[in-house]
Amino acid sequence: DIQMTQSPSSLSASVGDRVTITCRASQGISNYLAWYQQKPGQVPKLLIYAASTLQSGVPSRFSGSGSGTDFTLTISSLQPEDVATYYCQNYDSAPLTFGPGTRVAIK
Amino acid sequence: EVQLVESGGGLIQPGGSLRLSCVASGFTFGSYSMNWVRQAPGKGLEWVSYISRRSSNIYYADSVKGRFTISRDNAKNSLFLQMNSLRDEDTAVYYCAKDRGDNAYLFDYWGQGTLVTVSS
Questions:
Q1: Are residues A87 and B100, on separate chains, in Cβ contact within 8 Å?
Q2: Fewer CB within 10 Å, N or C, chain A?
Q3: Is B88 in a helix, a strand, or coil?
Q4: Quick one: closest CA in A to B57, which residue?
């Protein structure tokens, strides 16, 4: 099974800061990587798929990059509404696996 | 508007069985694969099971293989998860999640979830 790791596990940044979250797969998954946002008390929301394609309706301050084993999610200018836990997901093949999550807070 | 409404959760003793249901609306249910994803209290997301639009491809997480069975009824826009031999570690909110396509393995819409608590 492909294992997903994320770093950092949590971060605190100021409004307007650039925030970067890293996700690593235990083996190459091409670009079969998605990012989800889960705000407190809410269900997860698909942000990005195919490593860098924004899901419809997602603000352009979110971007993704990477291929193979190393991926990043970037928030170009952190907003208060971005407080959430962010998960990466491998969808190269079953079993589908999520990273452990990165909690983003406002400083 | 896409809606996914789960039901069937509750408190169950270890070794017991539950059947979860998810009723879908707002899209052509039979055109999309579907999934169950769970989240233990205060923990991260764990994919549980996948079923293709015509039920021809079914996959399970190793943690539930042999105990859980996914199924669907396209005529009734419904997804099911039969859970047997439940364990304490199965305690979680179970989400019904729509696939972004058929065999996309991406979750673009989620229900609000149903809580399953396994405890004696």
A1: no
A2: C
A3: helix
A4: A94
A96–chain B Cβ distance below 8 A for any pair: yes
Interface contact flag, A87 B113, Cβ < 8 Å: no
Enter the tokens of residue B113: 């979830």
Q: What is the pLDDT of residues B4-62, one digit of tens each?
A: 999 999 999 999 999 999 999 999 999 999 999 999 999 999 999 999 999 999 999 99
The yes-or-no verdict on residue B102 having pLDDT over 90 is no
In whole numbers, what is the pLDDT of chain B averaged over residues?
96
HSE at residue A1, side-chain half, CA atoms within 13 A, is 14
Which residues in chain B have their CB less than 8 angstroms from residue A85's CB?
44
Average pLDDT, chain A: 97
